[in-house]
Amino acid sequence: MKPAYDVLVIGAGSVGVPAAWALAARGLKVCVLDGAAGPGQGQNKAAIGGIRATHSDAAKIWLCQESLDIFRSWTEKSGDQIGWRQGGYCFPCFSEKTEEHFRKLLAIQKTFGLGIDWIDAAAIGELVPGINRRRLRGGTFSPGDGSASPMMSCTAFYRHARRMGAEFRFGERVTGFVRAPGRIVAVRTDRGVVAAGEIILANGAGARDLGAELGLDIPVFSDSHEGGITEPVQRLFEPMLVDIRAVPGSKNYYFYQNDEGQIIFCISPDPLVVGKDTRATSSFLPLVARRMCSLLPRLAGIRVRRTWRGLYPMTPDGSPVVSAVRDFSNLKIAVGMCGQGFMLGPGTGMLLSRWIAGGQTERDRTILEKLTLYGDFSKGVEELK
Ligand SMILES: Cc1cc2nc3c(=O)[nH]c(=O)nc-3n(C[C@H](O)[C@H](O)[C@H](O)COP(=O)(O)OP(=O)(O)OC[C@H]3O[C@@H](n4cnc5c(N)ncnc54)[C@H](O)[C@@H]3O)c2cc1C
């Protein structure tokens, strides 16, 4: 079967769409298949839009540094509005133990050239006027990080991918594969068969099921998280605030004020809700609103417009799986983005384009070694995942 495309991407989400753009920009004939009716309709649209490079793991730091460069310069280069705002990330700290921990992490982050520092409680008070300073010891602040609209960004990447010649086939679900020894010849869909030279599996929370069709054990297990958004209000603060204190019923929660003045927020439930249930609950809003208003009392009275629930496609170690596959020479997987697929997407897309079209760097190879499917997933969980 003669391949109709150089590259077939399964999944038009946070990873698949920027990957299609990056690959098409290198002159490759790209096709993207998605069971949904348009781009970014999976978990991409559930993301609240936070983008940071300040992780604890080298692979994620490097991927997100490249993503940040793309988000930051997108409007200037392309003219599209994506809601980018460089407000930074602030992790306020309320205990000696957490301070010690953050300071240790800072030392590692600085070795990657990340612009992140410890600031005292007064400086946090200036960044976030009205913040409750009870027990506040200070915290980390990374002014280079920011946020953008996941829907506007995905749509912008989609338009540019199409302009570069990429073809998108929506409402077409991949159901299986046509195999030859050592490679995949084509994918089977609910509409037919599509052949391509290279296949990229970028189907997020569906990776485990589709991997099983190939006899692969891809360790992606979803858990569900809820988000919400308020009406727009005057600017109150700039950074994404991440409060990692755990209280009964929830772990960390994080929120920021977007480009249009709306407060966007989400929380990690405790215990985690494992599975693919995306029905919004009635318990989320009271839980998160109480915590947010206790940290920043000025938020009280702002009206919430809506809430939603989506999935984190999690891996056992909190890092994505971006990997070659031993049994199939032309299959690459880019899944398991956990709670950070929106920020990892463009950087991962660029890496995939260099891997397939040529120009792979030493750093790319190191990232792939770290994010391999064949790694030791029990080695410990990535901090601040
Ligand atoms: C409440 C909440 C807040 C979040 N906030 C952030 C944030 O601030 N920053 C951040 O970076 N991340 C955030 N995330 C995480 C982020 O949404 C995900 O990590 C990311 O969207 C995953 O990207 P993906 O491309 O792997 O999957 P998706 O974006 O879900 O894309 C996968 C696509 O594959 C398609 N698909 C699946 N199976 C098939 C099949 N068999 N055939 C064809 N198509 C298929 C789906 O329809 C989907 O469109 C948040 C998530 C939630 C739930």
SSE order = EHEEHEHEHEEHEEEEHEEEEEHEEEHH
Biggest sheet architecture: 9 strands, mixed
| Strand residues, percent | 25-35%
Helicity, as a percent range: 25-40%
Mean pLDDT equals 96
**Considering the protein shown, what is the CATH homologous superfamily of the largest domain?**
FAD/NAD(P)-binding domain
List the ions, cofactors and other small molecules found in this model: flavin-adenine dinucleotide
Q: Architecture of the largest domain, according to CATH?
A: 3-Layer(bba) Sandwich
**Count of all domains:** 2
Summarize this entry quickly:
The protein is α+β, with helices and mostly antiparallel strands. The protein contains 9 helices and 19 strands.
Q: Describe it for me?
A:
The protein is 29% helix and 29% strand. The protein is globular and about 65 Å long. The protein has nine helices and 19 strands. It has two domains: 5-75 and 150-220 and 317-370, FAD/NAD(P)-binding domain (3-Layer(bba) Sandwich), CATH 3.50.50; 85-145 and 222-313, D-Amino Acid Oxidase, Chain A, domain 2. The protein has helices at residues 16-25, 58-78, 96-111, 121-127, 150-163, 207-213, 284-295, 341-357, 362-370, and strands at 5-10, 30-34, 50-51, 89-93, 117-119, 138-142, 146-147, 167-170, 174-180, 183-189, 193-201, 221-232, 240-243, 250-257, 262-269, 273-274, 304-314, 321-325, 328-335. With 385 residues, the protein is α+β, with helices and mostly antiparallel strands. Strands 4, 5, 6, 12, 13, 14, 15, 16 and 17 form a nine-stranded mixed beta sheet that branches. Strands 1, 2, 8, 9, 10, 11, 18 and 19 form an eight-stranded mixed beta sheet that branches. A two-stranded antiparallel sheet has the order 3-7. Helix 1 runs parallel beside helix 5 (150-163), helix 1 packs parallel to helix 8 and helix 2 (58-78) crosses helix 9 (362-370). Flavin-adenine dinucleotide (FAD) binds next to strand 2, strand 12, strand 17 and helix 8.
